[in-house]
Structures are given as C-alpha cells and as structure tokens.
C-alpha cells in the first residue's frame, strides 16, 4: 500500500489487518491527540470501482456525543483516498472538540484578566504601586487615600468558575473584614471602587488613630496596623489606659479601661465617671477622649529616664511576661504598695496551686511570687 510510510510516520500505533471478508480491512490502534490517546477501530470497505468507504466501529475517550457524530458524519459524507486522510480528519475533529476547546476558554479568562488589569491601572490615579503576579493569580496594589495614607491590598483571581466573581480581595489591612468588600466582583475596577469607598468611610477612624499615635506614648501595639482599633497609652509610672474604638462607629464613646493599682486608677476613673454622661457627638474625638480622662494632653513618657533592663514592662503579667493571655489582660494586682505586680488570674492560680496554697471558699491564697506577701485570686476550672 502506497500510504504505509505516511501512516507509520504519522500514526505509528495503527495496525491494518485483513479480515475473512476480502473487501473489508480492519484498522485498529491508538491515535494521539493533544496529550490524550484514543483507541480506535475502523473498517475499510473497498468496492470494485470507486474510493474506499470507512466505518467507525469503536473509539474510546470521546466524552461528547457531538464529537462522535461529527466523526461518523465525516466518515459517511467525505471522500478519502486512504486511511491517513481519515485519521487526519478524525484528528482535526478531536482537536476542536476536546482539550483544545477547554484551553481556549482558559485563554479567554487570562485575556480578560489582563484586559481588566490594564484598564484598572489606567482608571485609578491614586495607585502608588501595582503588580500582577506572573501566574495571573494575584494582584498586589498599594494605594494612597485622600490624606494621603498608604494602604496595601491583595486581590485574588478566582479561576474556579464556581462563581462569576473573578476578583476578590484576599488581604487588606482594614479594621474588620467587610462582607461587601470580600464578596468579590467580576469587574476589577468595580471591586476596587468598593474598597476605595470603604477607605473613605474609615477616614475619621484612621485620623483618630494617627492623632493618638502622634500625641500619646503608645505601649501597645508595638507597631500599630490599620486593623488595630485599640491603643494602650502610658498615663504615668505603673498606670496605663486601653482605649478601644469602633472603626465603623467612630463617634460612639470609645471603651476605656485602666491598668494599674487602685490608688493610681482612682483619679482617672472618677474623672471618667464624671464626664461619661457629657459625651455627645464629638467633632473632635481626640479632644473628647482627653476630656473623658480629665487631661489637657497625654503625658509623654521620658525615654531618657526610662529604666533599662526592665524584665517586665508595666502592664504585663509578672509570671508569663505577656500582656494578653487568651485575650485577657492581667486582672490581679498585688496589694503590697512596694510590689504592685500584675498577674493573670490563670497564671497566679496555677502558681498558687503548684505551691499547695490554701483554698478559702472560692479563693485560693498564698504568697506573691514577687514580694512574698499574701495574695489571693478566684479559683479557676
Ligand atoms: Zn500571665
Ligand atoms: Zn507582691
């Protein structure tokens, strides 16, 4: 047969065998189309005069019915001079209908992502840096607000096709995960516009936190992030206050707690009690906080006279050396004025239990780990 060299080169896994019927040849084997093998069986029927006819007996791996009927149609209507032409035709149909089609859909999405990204970069003038990761899955943006303050955002591209929301914000330093923002959007510009709107909404919050950071000695957090809606502020030796605000309700009276021995807290808490009723809608929230505390301004900690090598920062538990344990601040203070160490209830309880201290009703009482004077705390589970 004159086509066999061509067949061996193009379709090396195809065999041709004669059958009992002299006019029928069985063609069987595998063809390789776009990373996939298809096992096929065909019959070639030769009539005396005219081109041979081909019939598909079986084919594996074809999932779509339309692909199958396209092949059958082609075999019954088209004219082929030889088996190579038949296999070429089948090859073409399989290419169109299987993986390649799949690939084209993906290419469309990639094209859309790149298009959205380039439109996005042109659309927002306040973008300071912007990067689309090479694998097209993440977009990192740094944007300035009206102040200007810098905000970093990470946007994820969702290729899962489970939702039409191609873009969603995967990381942003915002005080609370806002559902509207994290919902995602099929348009990158629309998604980012929601985010910018959120930044504008939070301007009074950012403003207050910046003012606190500038005008007070902040003990905690160490390096405030925009999502930190609280500040622990130094009020004097051994006394501090924790001010927590609601970022979305900034004009509400903030939550104010004091940390320190009673004798130092007293004057602040009486000022707070006195002024608490006077809190109305505050145009200047920073001033409102000073008024609540009965202060003209926040005292500044003199760093020059600050004791170095202090093992425990004031406010931290003197057993675990941490400020927070299970999100709780140290609740117990040693009543000895020359000690006044702070302890988490849990830490002190464990300590006293380990020393087999006395239990009286709902309390356990023993010696302060620091000054050894009597100290007690409620029993824990
Ligand atoms: Zn502790
Ligand atoms: Zn003590």
From TrEMBL:
Bilayer-spanning residue ranges: none
Cross-referenced InterPro entries: Fancl, FANCL_C, FANCL_d3, FANCL_d3_sf, Znf_RING/FYVE/PHD
One CC-aspect GO term: Fanconi anaemia nuclear complex
One Pfam family named in its UniProt record: FANCL_d3
Domain FANCL C-terminal: residue ranges: 316-376
Any GO BP annotation: protein monoubiquitination
Gene3D superfamilies: RWD domain-like, Zinc/RING finger domain, C3HC4 (zinc finger)
SUPFAM superfamilies on file: RING/U-box
GO molecular function: ubiquitin protein ligase activity
UniProt-recorded name of the protein: RING-type domain-containing protein
């Amino acid at each position: 047969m004159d086509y066999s060299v061509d067949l061996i080169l193009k379709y090396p896994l195809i065999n041709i065998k004669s059958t009992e019927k002299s006019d029928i040849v069985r063609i069987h084997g595998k063809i390789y189309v776009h990373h996939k093998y298809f096992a096929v069986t065909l019959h070639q029927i030769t009539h005396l005069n005219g081109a041979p006819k081909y019939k598909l007996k079986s084919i594996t791996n074809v999932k779509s019915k339309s692909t199958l009927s396209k092949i059958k149609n082609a075999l019954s209507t088209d004219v082929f001079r030889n088996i190579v032409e038949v296999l070429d035709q089948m090859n073409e149909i399989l290419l169109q209908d299987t993986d390649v089609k799949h690939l084209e859909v993906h290419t469309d999405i990639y094209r859309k992502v790149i298009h959205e990204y380039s439109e996005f970069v042109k659309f927002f003038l306040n973008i300071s840096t912007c990067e689309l990761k090479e694998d097209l899955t993440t977009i990192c943006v740094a944007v300035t607000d009206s102040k200007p303050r810098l905000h970093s955002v990470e946007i994820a591209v969702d290729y899962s096709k489970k939702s039409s929301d191609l873009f969603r914000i995967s990381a942003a330093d915002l005080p609370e995960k806002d559902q509207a923002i994290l919902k995602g959007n099929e348009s990158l510009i629309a998604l980012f516009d929601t985010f910018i709107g959120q930044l504008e909404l939070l301007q009074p919050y950012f403003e207050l936190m910046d003012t606190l950071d500038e005008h007070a000695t902040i003990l905690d957090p160490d390096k405030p992030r925009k999502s930190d809606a609280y500040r622990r502020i130094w009020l004097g030796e051994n006394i501090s206050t924790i001010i927590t605000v609601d970022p979305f309700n900034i004009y509400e009276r903030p939550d104010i707690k004091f940390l320190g021995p009673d004798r130092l807290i007293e004057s602040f808490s009486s000022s707070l009690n006195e002024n608490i009723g006077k809190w109305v809608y505050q145009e200047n929230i920073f001033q409102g906080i000073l008024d609540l505390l009965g202060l003209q301004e926040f005292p500044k900690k003199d760093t020059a006279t600050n004791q170095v090598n202090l093992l425990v920062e004031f406010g931290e538990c003197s057993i675990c050396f941490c400020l927070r344990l299970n999100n709780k601040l140290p609740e117990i203070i040693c009543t000895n004025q020359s000690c006044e160490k702070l302890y988490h209830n849990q830490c002190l309880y464990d300590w006293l239990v380990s020393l087999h201290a006395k239990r009286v009703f709902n309390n356990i009482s023993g010696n302060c780990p620091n000054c050894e004077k009597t100290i007690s705390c409620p029993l824990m589970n």
